[in-house]
Amino acid sequence: MNREEHEVAILGAPQNSGPVMSTVVNIQTETIVPDHIVWSLFNTLFLNPCCLGFVAFAYSVKSRDRKMVGDVIGAQSYASTAKCLNISALVLGIIMIIILIIMFATGSLMVSHYPYDIMKSQKGHY
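Above: the chain sequence. Below: its structure as tokens.
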């Protein structure tokens, strides 16, 4: 008797000779939906033309709420709207800053010539 036969004789035959059952556990990976909340907060605090930053922040919070509930489609919809509003707020804010710089630069040059013109015109009056 060889070793394997001896072990089978001592231990006995396998108790369950039926089909082997297996359990499969499907773990869903969490779908990453960016909610753009930091970008919205930045636009709310610094570049907030026409309150677009605040509205984008509201949509970002709604997107985060939908993601916590498990509604991925709703979260993506709110995140997409927040992204569009953030882009609009950023572009309008940059345009407004550029216009302000141009107005300041041209206005400051005109103001610097104004006292000189007044002094020149009053020189003949004394």
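The first helix runs from residue 3 to 11.
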